[in-house]
Specification:
Order of helices and strands: HEEHEE
Radius of gyration: 25 Å
Number of domains: 1
Number of helices: 2
Strand content: 25-35%
Oligomer: single chain
Helix content: 40-55%
Number of strands: 4
Largest sheet: 2 strands, antiparallel
Structural class: alpha+beta
């Protein structure tokens, strides 16, 4: 199968370049967010629909415990304990 080369105008190439640069910037932003720990989950669309992949780490059980706590204690100094 032979590919046909389609000549593009300068204007078409400029528009295509701008679109590709925009997509690249968006992708780099997403990757930086993942690298910096700013992402908790990723949604992936596939043949079986959307799937959610959660990102977890060693601190996940601790964070879940803290988020589910209804009361906590704070010890700002050794003589006094404050309860919330």
């Amino acid at each position: 199968m032979t590919k046909m080369l389609i000549a593009k105008t300068r204007e078409q190439l400029i528009i295509e370049n701008e679109e590709l640069r925009s997509r690249l910037a968006e992708t780099e932003e997403a990757l930086n967010a993942i690298r910096n720990g700013e992402v908790d989950a990723i949604v992936v669309s596939g043949s079986e629909g959307e799937q959610v992949y959660s990102i977890s780490s060693a601190e996940t059980p601790y964070r879940t415990f803290i988020e589910e706590m209804s009361e906590g204690a704070d010890h700002p100094d050794e003589k006094k304990a404050e309860y919330s």
